[in-house]
Structure prediction request, 426 residues.
Amino acid sequence: MSQDAIEQLLQQTMGLSSASIGSSAIARAVQVRMRELVITSTDDYLRRLQSGTIELQQLIEEVIVPETWFFRDRNPFIALARYARENWPPRDRYGPLRILSIPCSTGEEPYTIAMTLLDAGFGPSDFSIDAVDISEPNLRRARLGLYRENSFRGDDLSFRARHFIKSEQGYLLQPKARSQVKFHHANLLAPGFLSGHEPYDVVFCRNLLIYFDRATQARALKVLERLLQPEGLLFLGHAEAGVLAGQKFSPLDHARSFAFMRGANQRAAQVENETPFQLPKRRRAITPPAPTPAARPFADVTPTAPAAEPASRPQPDLETATRLANEGHLVEAATLCEAHLRQLGPDAQAFYLLALVREAVGESSEAEALLRKALYLDPNHYEALTHLALILERRGDLANAALTQQRAKRSFERQQNEAAQRAEGV
Ligand SMILES: C[S@@+](CC[C@H](N)C(=O)[O-])C[C@H]1O[C@@H](n2cnc3c(N)ncnc32)[C@H](O)[C@@H]1O
Prediction:
């Protein structure tokens, strides 16, 4: 009961839907806070939460996902530079190009915007960036401008030599890019959010809406619209474009930039059809071999009798979860997968889908753990194998990536043979 009330409080305050990160992640965060406060009952902790904002902010710090890095997805920044070069300054306006980055986490995104525009030839007075996040510790790190290897990912790190100074503590962003960004502590869903600020020409709001349910996404979108100039540009995360379905936003003509122009509704229908990423169709279920006691790394995957559900409750189906994920409704997809696992017990496809959703929100290690659960139940799950191989490759474990890819290839060949035999009626 108290757990439900805590999840509701988080949802109302910061928008976080428990389905996006999982109820267990919220329960773990609550345990951390209770240990810190030496509180042993969840009811007492709930009362503490309800008694003021200080503890609520502490819990928010525990549940947020700060995952970010410089030039996260290249295309949005290439599109921004092109847009700025072609459209700025407009004939009828003076003043700098005004940009908002929300949520900015530890600063990598707004600083990437600054480096992009400086590298594109814009001067410091040509643009200004406001950067907002709900987490004070994140903002403190952002203001410091000091970063470690983990903030630099991908092949092209040439920007690092141009904009950073290497020190013993890490890489320090040079003042030229740093001074372009002003950081603010705020909650996108708080009443009157940035109400005193002039509307922005460009808003980056990437990898936040994926944590909200549909009603909260709609609420957030209203706030973002209010903050945008009539023809302002909105950049979303690659799994979030579906949120704009039916809205008066038109996609910018730049592949995979996930940038949308406000008020330009002539191509709005296209937004509806945007499929940010495609999940494969539900594969044929393969019965897993009975696990030997020695090969049971995931205690929580042990098939157990599912809890009895009221007869009238519709069973969560994975076809719908796949469709929702394809449409960018990741929270709903995750909710269905979790309900499926709760009501019907462990299922390779549910773990696999949940892994894709977790990966889309940048939680690769959680995704990897879920893929391993899927493969424990179904060692021949081709999609889970190929996905795991990708994750291993990305984190530099090339030997295991190659082995997993070989397993995927064998699984594919086996499925082809089985299909051929079925067709021949063997
Ligand atoms: C995954 S990071 C995204 C950072 C960056 N936009 C990116 O795509 O790399 C999510 C951030 O959202 C922030 N956040 C969560 N809820 C928020 C809210 N209601 N208002 C403002 N920031 C929020 C968290 O503190 C966290 O730093």
Remarks:
- The chain has three domains: 2-63, 75-273, 315-423.
- The beta strands are 97-101, 127-133, 146-147, 164-167, 170-173, 181-185, 200-205, 228-236, 249-251, 259-262.
- The pocket of S-adenosylmethionine is lined by residues 14-15, 64-68, 72, 102-103, 105, 109, 133-135, 138, 187-189, 206-208, 237, 362 (CB under 6 Å).
